Amino acid sequence: MSPTATPVRRQLATPPAPASPFPYNPGSLLSLQDLSLDGVSRLLRRATELENQNPITRGEILAKRRVALLFYESSTRTRTSFELAAKSLGADTTLVSSLSSSIEKGESLKDTGLTLRALGAEAIILRHNSSGAPWLLEEATRLPVLNAGDGMHEHPTQALLDLRTILGHLREGAQAVDTQTLAGVTVAIVGDILHSRVARSNMLLLPRMGARVLLCGPRELLPELAATAGPGVSIERDFDAALRGSEVVMMLRIQAERLAGLQLDLEQYKAGYQLTGPRLAAHAPKAVVMHPGPIIRGMEVTAGVADGVQSAILEQVHNGVAIRMAVLERALTTQGEHA
Amino acid sequence: MTALAIRGGQLLDPAAGVDAPRDILLRDGRVAEIAAPGKLKLANGAETLDAAGLVVAPGLVDMHVHLREPGQGYKETIATGTAAAAAGGFTAVAAMPNTTPVNDSPEITRWMQAPERGAAIRVFPIAAATRGSKGEALNDYAALKSAGAVAVTDDGRPILKDSTMRETLAAAARVGLSVIQHAEDTRMTQGASMNLGPASFRLGLRGMAPEAESSLVERDIRLVADLRDARVHLHVAHTSTAAALAAVRRARRNGLRVTCEVAPHHFLLTDEHVGLYNTNAKMNPPLRSAADRDAMVEALLDGVVDAIATDHAPHATHEKEVEFENAPNGITGLETALGLALRWLHREWKMPLGRVLSLLSAQPAALLGLKSRGTLAVGSFADVVVFDPKAEWTYRALDTKSKARNTPFDGWAMLGRVRWTIAEGRIAYTNPA
Question: Which domains does chain B have, with CATH numbers?
Fold first, then answer.
């Protein structure tokens, strides 16, 4: 509020915002806020069980169920791991991408969703460039919708696989989480926070288990507003200081496709925020280095760090399949109360 | 034309200082007689409306609506928009020029007022300030005024260039028109779809900074001050930020003719009401912070706000059933303004009924220079709203007279139910209940 504005004299009783009707379908995973910690624990446990299960019996879990992948943005990791996860459980998958479909001809997300439902899709995995698109799709179709990344908003399965990776390194692969599981752990998230759905989902998830999240980046990519994201989230502009206090360092790519005219001095950015071998050795020689990908080597991380012993980047990718099997199983077998 | 007598009601005419039981006679589109209950002398042969227990007030005036004609009749037509207005108690609306084509000519201005449009109440066009609302060449304001335009604006496409805005203010003043500015420095709001704040960060949506509004209001006020011409009248449309109101307050203290309006959604809702991407909570200016919303209420109560205007902005359902960022801005408002103002401003925040009605009738009528409207003094236009001030009811978007249902107030509790709306002596709306 402007300092010149007249202060409000009265205590105002005002209409409350209405309660959310979402998710309509208990199998949906739109946001991490839809999951209780018990629900998270259940997914972590099932991820491991499914990963270890005999592929033949695992393939009967969702045998011949129909899962549609609806992708409005390009993707390597998320799309492939969702697809492999669905197939591991025996489901039939089909991919619709915005190029090479009627989306190019102007068909709306609502109509595309209704069309997929009419074709027999029982769940839709949606990657979309607009924040909030999964809510629109779920309201229109009432199918289980799995948010595979919406604009700058959320990427719930990424945060879950990141959690599995962190637990693997710091908590001996614990599968039951509670409000204290990550007490004393600091996770630095570094780089383009403003445009990152991965950052937002991790900010929502990790503090619920007691972790401290340190956001680090230049003002253009990390507005002060980010500190309002929730309890346990704070800003540290000095990368070296952030590294010194952190057990986990999550590096983010600069999302050139979302910069919307923002001019960045990349050399200056690299000087301030690139994770290099010497920097890591000096300030965080034991930290787990993570990156949701795609990596731009030589930009946010050097090749040496990406391939180094502290890097858990490929483990993250690997964990994606197990987490997504659990999420898909929940989507198509959950009845009644969601958790 | 037949005469109409409204008997047994409480006449509440803030502009005339009347709040008393009165019978009122309408004849030939004008108020013919006002008398104590049972004392009308000229009512022979007049049809009677029984207003026992009801308030009889000047018909409401909305100085900011989008009726979508010409060119966008699939969203709304002048006939359907004015039918919704009548249902809401309005007898006059001022229609914005962002039509297709833009209303920047006397021909379109007259076309909008033609009887063929089937308007239920009076429509007063507000013409575009510049050709095609492109912010370059000024239109012929004298010609627009004689065609019936009551103000000029490039609503939705604010005039950013200082020199153009200065010329607009000066030229409009010369012919006695006010300039209405949708205050938004659009250079600061590219790609943004809601208020900038914790909610926009959380939702991953680009936000509009409050400064995009207040900086343009401040710029416009500087231009008004520089012109040193008492005829210059700047009206700030749909004010939504505390900082913009503070600027208006200062300008007024400095004796400048700067006025402003506030929409019901801006004095009731905050950016938290966007919820999970509810496109019926998307409009421009956007829903703001709680502090901004509180400042709107405060300014309404202490008199800085000159009018309540709805910014009625109908859209087809399919246009709003899209990704939040891709949805068009705007919500409907004509049928909910009175019920919300009474429920909240009057009942909850204790604004006297007469002041609520004045903000919805006499004051906007005066701002637009509408003669003999916004009051029911003898000789005035017979524009009347008769409503039950105690009736509580629930608004249902499905029941709307508008073509559009894009409202965040579906299912909301309303106070005060319109029984009849009478426009220039004709009954434009009768509540079926």
Answer: 4-56+381-430 (2.30.40.10), 58-367 (3.20.20.140)
